[in-house]
Amino acid sequence: MRKTLIALAFVATLVAGCGSSAATDRPQASGVPASGTSTGPTQTAQGATNAPTLSAPKNLDACSLLTAAEAGAVLGKAVGPGAPPVPGAHSCLFSPPSLALDAVEISITSVAVFNPAQKSIPGLTFTRVSGIGDDAYYVSIGAGYEVLNVRKGQNTFSTSIILKGASDTKLMDGEKSLALIILGRI
Question: Residue 45's CB: how many other CB atoms inside 10 A?
Answer without folding.
Answer: 5
